[in-house]
Amino acid sequence: MKKQILYATAALLVAILAVTACGGGTTPTAAPPPTTATQPTTAPEATTAPATTAPQATTAPSGSATKLQLLGWSSSDAENNLLNTIVDQFNKSQTQYTASFDPSPNYDQALQTALAGGAPPDVFYVDSLKFPDLMKNNVLATPPANAIQDPDDFYPSLKAAFTANGTFYCPPKDFSTLALIYNKKMLDAAGVKPPTTWDELKAAAEKLTDSSKGVYGLALSADAARWVAFLYQAGGTVLDANGKMNIDTPEAKVALDYYTGLLAAGYAVTPDKVDSGWNGEAFGKEKVAMVVEGNWMVPFLKSDFPNVEYDIAELPAGPKGKATMAFTVCYGVPKNGAHLDGSWQFVNALTNKQGMKEWTDLGLAMPTRKSLRDGWVQKFPNLKVFLDGADYSHPWQFGPGFTVVTDAINKGIQEIAAGQATSESVLKTVQKAGEDVLAQ
Amino acid sequence: MAQQAQAIHVPATRAAGGAPAWLVSLATIFRYLILFAFALIFLAPFIFAIANSFKTAPQIAQDALNLIPNPFTLENYLKLTRGAANVPLWTFNSLLFAGVVTVGRVFLCSLAGYALARISFPGRNIVFLAVLATMMIPGVVLLIPRFIILKQMNLLATYPGGILPILVDAFGIFLMKQFFESLPGEVEEAARIDGATPFQIFWRVSLPMATAPLIALTIFAFQGTWNELQHFLIALGPTARDLWPLTLGLATLRGAGVGQQLDFGLFLAGSILMTLPMALIFIVFQRYFVESSSHSAVKG
Amino acid sequence: MATTNIAGQRRQELIAGYSFVAPALIILLVFLFIPMFFTLWMSFRDWSGITPPAESGAVGLQWYERLLVLDNVRRTDFFTAFKNTFYYALGVVPTQTVLALLLAVIANQQLLRFKGFFRTTFYFPSITSSVAIGLIFLWIYQSGGILNQVIKAVNPAYRNISWMNDPTGIIHNTLAVFGLTLRTAPAWLTETNVLGLTLWQWLSGPSVTMTALMMLVIWTTAGTMMLVFLAALQDIPRPLYEAASVDGATSVQQFFSITVPMLRPTIFFVVTLGLIGTFQVFDQMFVMTSGGPAGTTTSLAYLIYRAGFNDSQMGLASAISVLLFLIIFTATLIQRRIFSDRAVA
Question: Model's pTM, two decimal places?
Answer without folding.
Answer: 0.81
